Amino acid sequence: MTSPARRRAVRRARGGAPLVAVALMLAACGGGSPVSVADPQRTLPAPAADRTAAPAERPDPQSLLSRPAMVSSPFAVTDTSAYERAGSHRLMEHPYGRGDGGVVEVHATELAAGPHESQVARSRLIVRGRVVEIGRPYFNSDDGGFWHSSFYPDDPVLRASATLIYRDVVFDVDEVLATKLSDVAVGTRLRFATAGGAVRVELNEEGARRMERPPGSLVWTWPHDFDLAVGEEAVVLINKVPIGGRYNGRYGERSTLRAGKYSKYTLKDGLAYNAWHEMPELKPIPEADLRGIVREHFGRRPHGPEPPDRSVNW
């Protein structure tokens, strides 16, 4: 038989669960307008000495390890296993050598940088935090495998589409500068995409014939928007955009969080450095000025989402 003390403990545990659930629901559904500019007094993290929370767990490996290293198609095999062997710590790493085959260098259409104000204007989320994990590169397709417009001569839309490479970044949010997304707050573990990477592709005879190349290996590359490293702290400007590609056997678009070109800032010695700070329009500015631009923009346009950034579909 169960002792009276144990029965009381069970009743207390059963009775407490609904209260916890209600508290969690209230926290998730907190009030406020659709657009909010974060109060620095509320969002700045506590000093390191005051942090008593348990260290963050490793993320569910939905970036590097969840995507298969080898993806086969009727025309080619996509191989990103080199990233596992090398350890994936930077966006701009390139783990391939001469023995991996010829390199196909693909360049994106250059986007106009514009001043700092224009970078803030195209964002729906601006956060400061730290990189936790960087995923393996993948193509804009259902399984992340390689495809090429020449494989589908009867599909005019795919024929005009680009074979893009992306990498996912897992990012812990320490401060929310501004947001139009209701599910992001301090402590959120974000996952967003950014363009760029290098992938080894093994063409079979049919794939090589359609691409008018000899069969064998090639390394397909796409320029990076910026660099990030595991453990690095940065301010990232993020939008929610449609990424076009080959999905469900035809051209389609999938909406995702993406940090595009010119979207990374580093804070150092009171200055905000854009990743492309060598460009005159993006020269370093005081951190206070960057925060002022954020407040001005999000205060001036307090309602409604930004239009999608179509520049991802070159």
List keywords for this structure.
five-stranded mixed sheet, 7 helices, 314 residues, 15 strands, 21% helix, ten-stranded antiparallel sheet, elongated, alpha+beta
- Measured as a percent range, the helix fraction is 10-25%
List how many beta strands DSSP finds. Answer: 15
Query: Structural class, from secondary structure content?
Result: alpha+beta
Number of domains: 1
Percent strand = 25-35%
Helix tally?
7
Distance between the ends: 71 Å
The rounded Rg comes to 23 Å
**Would you tell me the overall average pLDDT?**
77
What does the overall shape look like? elongated
Order of helices and strands: HEHEEHEHEEHEEEHEEEEEEH
* Major sheet attributes: 10 strands, antiparallel
Q: What low-confidence regions span 5 or more consecutive residues with pLDDT below 50?
A: 4-63, 300-314
